[in-house]
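Continuing the series of single-chain predictions for the mutant panel. This is the parent chain; the variants come on the following pages.
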Amino acid sequence: MTDIHAHIKQVALRHGISPLLVAAIIEAESEFNPRAVSRKGARGLMQLMPATASSLSVRDSFDPYENIDGGVRHLRRLLDRFHGNVPLAVAAYNAGEQTVINYHGVPPYRETRRYVAKILRRINYRGVAVIYGSSNRRVVMTESTMRPQIRPAVYVPPTRPEPRREAEPVHRETVRPEPRREILGPWAPTPMIRSVAASPRTSAIVSGVPSESP
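Parent structure:
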């Protein structure tokens, strides 16, 4: 069993996962029994389903070393899928990746929620940390950690730019200067009017008919 613990730590650190988390999953899945088989057909320490083992190139799920290699790679993929969210990755390990996505968080299955809670309790248990090393931060199952960090792509139609409106012409009234008016007041000089006395000579000049000289 000492070799198994050393292998767990080596493989987990190679893939950037806390060995404490891997050990907690193995304990919950098979209680460290490499020959364990579930009612659904999952096999080995990390209870790999035949289809999952095949996709991970695991030939013998009952081989503890090969099973750990495949199980840790599967867990790493789930952690990447959910951006390092441990509760969601653990829930996906138990109920399936698509189920977590469909429910936008930890599914409301009693088995899955108990499974996630059990794993989180184990990775915060100080006694196990003596063998595998303690995690840097405490993982707490809260409402935010139960929600997935991924969102389905939503099509957003492109917005059309509003047509440019031309500025309305400003109608200005043409102001014409008023005609100059001379204002005559009492101070204005009175125009001089020459009165010409009517005389035969003057009448002749005006009418063009010569007058008789006296």
